[in-house]
Fold NADH-FMN oxidoreductase RutF, flavin reductase (DIM6/NTAB) family.
Amino acid sequence: MFYTPEDGHGLPHNPFNAIVSPRPIGWISSRGAEGHDNLAPYSFFNAIAYVPPQVMFCSTGTKDSLMNIRETGVFCVNIVEAAARDVMNATSAAHLPTVDEFEKAGIEKAECDTIVCPRVAHAPANLECRVVQLVQLKGKDNHMVIGEVTGVHIRDDCLKDGRFDVTTFQPLSRLGYRDYAVVENVFELSRPDD
């Protein structure tokens, strides 16, 4: 099969998300200028640079997260563990900007240290971020947020022998359609020049 996006794929569901998978989930927390907290998952998310450390996530539509980030210039990425899949999914519901998804889903929050923003208190890790760039992408209402990581929280039980061990919390990742996967097994590969 071959198709061009402008001509369509002819399938019952768009295969693009399934092809580009698995994708980490950026569980983005933010606070608006008037103090309303927001928490929402984004599967177009990734780390993009080491020094300084930077991450990005993309939003289709001007959602509450994007509005808050435009107002304050900060956000926090909360890493999603398998055990949090149901509460993460609950925060994907559409609510008015004044609704606090932390409270609605029963998620404990904590304040960040380097930015004025809430974070998921018991997440395996949290990345506190200051906006570097907001990019209007091609297409209808597509936006990319790039942030520099200014603070990192790591849950103590996720550190094993000085390494952040993903098998201790099993990250949740997004596949295509309504499919998700859990990272349960890892293996190492050495580069040829190591």
Observations:
- The CA atoms of residues 82 and 172 lie 5 Å apart.
- Helices lie at 16-19, 64-72, 85-90, 101-105.
- The first strand starts at residue 23 and ends at 24.
